[in-house]
Design brief:
Chain lengths: ~110, ~110
């Protein structure tokens, strides 16, 4: 079945620095979604990418969907303490949404 | 307020004692799904439903049952819980199943 791999599993970032988390699928996806889960909370939908090569921005967050629609990335600039949490990518095909294992982000002030 | 409501939030039970975790959404969403979250494994889909009376297995359906008799409700049933079903469970809904999901607050289940 469809597998979504996400790296790194952990990201320790100095406040103010940038970082990127990557997502790769074993199959071509119809779309990819990104979610954020704060510690002790539930996943919250951030964004969906549908088109090959699509790039979307939300303030300091930049999301990309690969040309082959099998990979994606989330880049955060000038990390803040509010960015703490786990970021999940989720690949969609045939009404099934498969999640990666997530990247857990901690921030050093 | 648009939301997905799960109950209970916490549950400790014994092996073999049947239990039901309820899930209800007030957004008139067609699509609902159950996930379990375990450390290092992310969220794994248990069952999903594309509409009333239409359900299908996800990636880890063994030991679980679901039903979708009404659009708003999608209960998760564990007929004979075992310790390996100790996990954090999330219910989620989506208007079409293709766009972003709204998640409930989660149910932390411990089976002893």
């Amino acid at each position: 079945g469809q597998q979504v791999m996400q790296i790194p599993q952990y990201q320790h970032v100095q406040e103010g620095e940038d970082f990127t988390t990557y997502c790769n699928s074993s199959t071509t996806l119809s779309n990819i979604q990104w979610y954020k889960q704060r510690p002790g909370g539930h996943p919250v939908f951030l964004i969906q990418l549908v088109k090959s090569g699509e790039v979307k921005k939300q303030k300091r967050l930049t999301f990309q969907f690969g040309e082959a629609k099998k990979n994606s990335s989330l880049h955060i600039t000038a990390t803040q303490t509010t960015d703490v949490g786990t970021y999940f990518c989720a690949g969609s095909n045939d009404y099934k949404l498969s999640f990666g294992a997530g990247t857990t982000v901690t921030v050093r002030a | 307020e648009a939301q997905v409501t799960q109950n209970p939030r916490y549950l400790i039970t014994v092996t073999g004692k049947k239990l039901t975790v309820t899930c209800s959404q007030n957004m008139n969403h067609e699509y609902m799904s159950w996930y379990r979250q375990d450390p290092g494994l992310g969220l794994r889909q248990i069952y999903y439903s594309m509409n009333v009376e239409v359900t299908d297995k996800g990636d880890v359906p063994e030991g679980y049952k679901v039903s979708r008799k009404e659009k708003r409700n999608f209960p998760l049933i564990l007929e004979s819980p075992s310790p390996n079903q100790t996990s954090l469970y999330f219910c989620a809904s989506s208007f079409t199943g293709v766009y972003g999901y709204t998640f409930g607050s989660g149910t932390r289940l411990t089976v002893v």
